[in-house]
## 1
Amino acid sequence: MANNNKNYSRIFKLIYEQDTISKQEIALQLNLSLPTVSQNLKALLEDNLIRNDGKFKSQIGRRAVAYSVNSENHISLGLELFKEYVSITAVDLKNQEIAFDRRSISFDLNDNYFAELTDWIKAFSQKNGLTDDQIIGMGVGIQGLISFDRKTVLYGKILNCTGLQVSQFEKYLPYPVSFFHDADCVAYAEQDSSDSNEDTIYLSLGEHLGTAIMIDGKIYSGEQGRSGTMEHVTFDLNSDRVCYCGRKGCVETYVSISSLLNDGESITDFMDQLKTDKDVQKRWNEYLDYLAEAVNNFHMFLDNRIVLAGELLQFVDDSVLFDVKDRIHQITAFPEDDPYLSFGSVLSHPVASGAALPLMESFVDCI
Ligand SMILES: [Zn+2]
């Protein structure tokens, strides 16, 4: 790709921002001569980044050719890697999901697991007509902390996968693989689906609690990559609730979905019984108190918007949001002028979606 050509990049980005645009309009908007625009359009067409999308309909006289991004020719994959299942998504150059699948498979560090998993990924690509050339890479959302180069799991106690390397995937796949912290993925997915660019704390309410801080459109990870692990802030040192991190009384043990459920109970069972079962109602009421406490605490670290995201969103509506806000109102020490708490909007597989997005963003940035 002609990355070193500034006009090539400017023209691509203008086409990227528009649905369709004519050569004349590009020349006008970027203040370039028509021959310069033509030359770069030719190069972009040759690189399969744009396509000739027919002609504009409503023009009088000679109709101008419409150019648009060849979005389906460049795909990034996102994988959610959980203990009992994996989900995969494929997104195009414009961040639109073009395919999705999910499979039950128990996580294992054994090489057979990675062979089986990558076979399934290859079959997914094939089924959806994606060639290896089209795929720019795969992001994997992991419940753990990831090295800065995105190649190693630094801390993976939930899956017991500390030290896992992307090479375990890459030896079976012909494109690069990067790891992402699952809570960061949820934050990417939520930010992509929202119109707001405000700095935000994301609480991902899934089997486990995940937290991420987004500042200036980027995940804030601190010097050692450990910022945004607020799930291990402790509520109560004398608590008998043991966290997977080894400590007691972490917010994780009060606010994660697993903290809400009894052994063997699913969140679907729990929600089905919420209307009728007194014990379930009592647990839900306590859970919402702890959630309000957590949100109120985190808001004191950063006076920013807080978004509740993740799996729990599938089971709650705005009445729960109002309820949590009301609980916060009862406990907060400071008057809150602005309503800072909201629900996210990505209901399905946010980790997989969010794992695919940063790869595509850096691909587009580098054009
Ligand atoms: Zn902990």
Note: The CA atoms of residues 9 and 313 lie 39 Å apart.
## 2
Amino acid sequence: MDKKQDTYTNNQTPILIIGGGIAGLTAAVEAAETGYRVILIEKQPYLGGRVAQLNRYFPKMCPPYCGLEINFRRIRTNPRITVYISTTVTNISGEPGNFSVTLLTEPQYINNKCTSCGECVKVCPVERPDEFNQGMTTTRTAYLPHELAYPFRYVIDHQKCKGVSCGLCLDACDYQAINLSATETKKVVKAGTIILTTGWKPYDPMNLQDLGYGKSPDIITGMMMERLGAPNGPTHGQILRLSDNEIPKKIAFIQCAGSRDENNLPYCSGVCCSATLKQAMHYVEQNPEGEATIFYIDLRVTGRNEDFLSKIIDHPRINLIKSKVATVQMSSDKHTINLDYEDILSGLKQKSAFDMVILATGIIPENIDPIKISADDFGFAKSEHLPDGFYSAGCLNKPADVASSIKESTGITLKALRTAGFKP
Ligand SMILES: Cc1cc2nc3c(=O)[nH]c(=O)nc-3n(C[C@H](O)[C@H](O)[C@H](O)COP(=O)(O)OP(=O)(O)OC[C@H]3O[C@@H](n4cnc5c(N)ncnc54)[C@H](O)[C@@H]3O)c2cc1C
């Protein structure tokens, strides 16, 4: 728990926000800056959600960390906000104005005495997949979630750590910041109203083996491409094909990979077209000889992304082909990826070869078990049908970009404050 909160004396019932992505951060700062106490729950050991993993924002191509940093500063300096990381909610009882919420925090093997010196990592012998880099790299069991993480503190993956039988990190830490016997903690907090902002996760690409996923390390998802392009990603921002670390000369982007497809996700994930335009532009800007081809069913972009689309259409090294890709096959050299597709505008069946393929996989809502909420057939929250005292915002409600998630979260927070009848 954030220490500054221990001394907070106001006995007003707080507003509880579950999910510390951009929607949850927005709700937290909006409510706290209006004068209310806030408890923010995040299951990861860092705040920021999926946005922290993005390379750049469409349509301005700016780094998402600018906006996140502003929110982190507002959270850090606001005594009304208590943050619980590595924490989930296991039970909610009571009624609006007086909910009792049980929080479960994972064992904190590294405590507040951590100075982030990193000595524990140097001696840790066990590796784990790095989910922040979409599994493309590993970290040690003692690790920093990422180099811009907030809070900026090392953590130990208690599920992978060998515990005191190894204990090398205990000797390496000069600050007594490590306790390998720490256990999970439960705590019950009171809340007046609850805002759900648990966001989204990528559709499982293993369902897309017909589009080549799993056949080659060079057939990756849109979120993996975000990490490949990011300066703090696995290749330090240089887009390389993972099979041999060569710079790809030709990249294919396959839109609606599993989306708008009865066998996978029947709906449109809304942001993938803009995300791909952004990634294609980033790639050709980085590689003066690189060529990007986008295979799309429809290009769905809104607002300022329309101007961005015009730039893409005019770009001499970005091709847009209206088509549904039929097959994705590896050639015998194990690097060239062959695509068969029908060019819908000409009606011709075509073949093309690429060095890398990016599948624009869709967005699915994060499950917030054990909290039961009204959801549509795909698991997105039906915000207008939630129980009294509950609100939801961001990608838990529907696939959305950051600007829409922030707008919705601000509106929902005002509603939540008004309905619960808080007095600032
Ligand atoms: C490939 C790709 C690229 C994109 N690029 C852009 C872009 O350039 N510009 C743009 O505007 N949008 C972009 N988006 C969309 C953007 O990612 C979303 O708008 C944004 O992540 C929505 O924020 P959120 O807070 O609703 O959800 P999330 O970012 O998913 O945050 C939810 C948070 O809740 C936490 N959480 C989940 N379950 C629990 C639980 N049970 N208990 C506690 N915490 C929990 C999660 O760990 C996470 O931190 C992109 C999307 C994709 C797929």
Note: The helical segments are 22-33, 65-76, 119-123, 168-172, 222-229, 272-286, 305-314, 402-420.
## 3
Amino acid sequence: MKKLLTFAAGLVFASGMAHAAGQHAGGHGNSDGHHAMMAVGEPGEAGKVSRNVDVVMRETDDGEMIFEPSALDVRQGETIRFRVHNRGELEHEFVLDDHHGVMEHKALMERFPEMEHDDPNSVRLDSGKRGEVIWKFTNSGTFEFACLIPGHYDSGMKGELTVTESQANN
Ligand SMILES: [Cu+2]
């Protein structure tokens, strides 16, 4: 049941996003089109990683939940391996998306707290665990990374991800 819900949710996000952004680039004729059409980019290949970026997730003594660093900068065209480490006491996740996608996903997680998603733009980790997301940033713009486990985003688990337009066309 969880898998079905996850899959259905992905379709809802994708169609909502496509309509909102009016995007037509990419994804046509691709059976995995709902990922390929994401504004933030597409799943990256391990063999094409240009850079590793370390991200820590944890709670603070004064009750916040945070990502370190709290903002990330990449260049358009880069494939990044995000090496995510949950150094907190609670379960956390790292999700990459545009603001619209994050808000939709957040609302869904609040309605279905048991929902699990193993999409390539996210990794969910138990306390003390490490994981990674390999992602290719095909579009420039301002995006987000977030933890959408209910309550966490509003406790501070969000950050801005800026993708700078590449000078050389690669
Ligand atoms: Cu969290």
Note: Residues 2-23+31-164 form a domain with the Immunoglobulin-like fold (CATH 2.60.40.420).
